[in-house]
Design brief:
The protein has about 110 residues and is mostly beta strands. The protein is built from one helix and eleven strands. It has a single domain, classed as Transthyretin/hydroxyisourate hydrolase domain (Immunoglobulin-like, Sandwich), CATH 2.60.40. It is about 5% helix and about 45% strand.
Length: about 110
């Protein structure tokens, strides 16, 4: 089984290419992955797969403000959304897909397939 993500920039109607993200396992605070999204708004490899795919609570942190600044969007200081954390649990051996739909002022997520 594996964990994947992708990010959609809903303000511009396109994938959020180049957004930095971090995956942390909350039980011990271990940072498991630091990555950037590709041109399709996805990370090139699974975030968790094989032996690293374990039940537990995790957090994905998406660097939203840095991304939008890089797109030329004028943000307040501090920005309304800076780093968007998504805390989620893995309970069983299934594919977990955690997408982020984001603008400078809102975000949503869901468990995808």
């Amino acid at each position: 089984m594996k964990l994947t993500t992708h990010v959609l920039d809903t303000a511009h109607g396109r994938p959020a290419a180049g957004m930095a993200l971090t995956l942390t396992r909350l039980a011990d605070g271990a940072v498991l992955v630091r990555a950037r999204t590709n041109a399709d708004g996805r990370v090139d490899n699974a975030l968790l797969e094989g032996k690293s795919f374990q039940p537990g609570t995790y957090q994905l942190d998406f660097s939203v403000a840095d991304y939008f600044r890089g797109q030329g969007v004028a943000l307040s200081d501090p920005p309304f959304l800076d780093v968007v954390p998504i805390r989620f649990g893995i309970a069983d051996e299934r594919h977990y897909h955690v997408p982020l739909l984001v603008s400078p002022f809102s975000f949503s997520t869901y468990r995808g397939s």
